[in-house]
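To: structure desk
From: M.T.
Subject: fold request, one chain
Message: Could you run this one when you get a chance? Sequence is below, nothing fancy, just the single chain.
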Amino acid sequence: MSSGDGRVPTGFEIDGETAWRNVIASKGGHWSVADGDAAAYPLTANARLAAGLALARVTPKFQLRASDVFFCVGSCFARNVEEHLMYRGIRVDSRLIAFSDSATRPNAFVNKFTPGSILNELRWSLAGEAYPRDSIVEDDGAFRDLQLAPWASALPLDDALERRRMVQRYFARIRHADVVVVTLGLVETWYDTQASVALNAAPSYWMSRRFPGRFRLVVTDYAANLAAVNAIVELVTRHAAAAVRIVLTVSPVPMTQTFTADDVIVANTYSKSTLRAVASDAARDHAHVQYYPAYDTIAVSNRSLAYNGADNLHVTDAAVSAVTSHFLETYGVDAVRAHPEFNELEYLFANPDVRAAVLARQFASGYEHWLVHGRNEGRPLRADGDRSPLDVLIG
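Reply: Done. Structure tokens follow.
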């Protein structure tokens, strides 16, 4: 096929007759249909959007099993997916870590926001590369690990290094995973020129002033992110279980702020569009890697159903539940959410002593406590009164 100047356009190709057969046979390939085509209408995007939550159709490359061991890596949406897999009796090894001063989910400090920061953790935990100690930065007399989520506290140096070792042992669990779900979040990446490493969290304003020239923001482009995701796929394939399957996703949670001069809506669109293209292209040539369109489903669906009204940022629990069920059904797993009335954050918010027990690693989750003790004790599933802190965290 010529582009008019004798050059063939680049990209993945489909034979012309096959392309038309795809259109004819498609069960989800039409946005709308002509009036009167009642049989075809329910499968259109228009019909699914009218229903509220437009679950995107996926032709699976592989099958999953309810007995598979999952590991989810990424930002808060990865934590959402973990919880909903847990509710369905799936073993999720990325759930099992807690840090005593966590103000959000017990494992939220291992949230990873950019492909570069995910790749870092895999290089240190799987490939045996040395962690750059300079990446732990002094902050008002304590030390902050900028590879962790921004709410992870600064600690005395020895404690910060011990937490770093704990985090690396945590990511090393990928070696035993049958399924690795990678959720890509942002392209705005902070870079530490002294440690020569991409960061997960932004240095504070005062840190940037105290160490002039050390930190800089890189709005990473398609090529840089594709290289990082390809490297992630290669490392997981080499070090995880022999028949590992990798699911690439993009977080539907928008960026909370942009460090560029753009409107945050514009910056977020660039970020998600770049990562969405990268995820598909990185998966295309691998039989054991597939892009699952959680982002596509949530982003186009009725916002009042898909996003929490308190911040228009976090995804509702109901939407995560629907997407997780669709994901498992797509890949052949029949796993029902046995207790749809239960929500992990609601329960921890309503029972501070249980939250403390989870942080102390006496229980793997609030859900485990509820199944073993909470139901029989008549524990409340949700707190009364002001829910504003929870509204920001839920979903």
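Reply (cont.): Residues 264-283 form the longest helix (20 residues). Let me know if you need anything else for the meeting.
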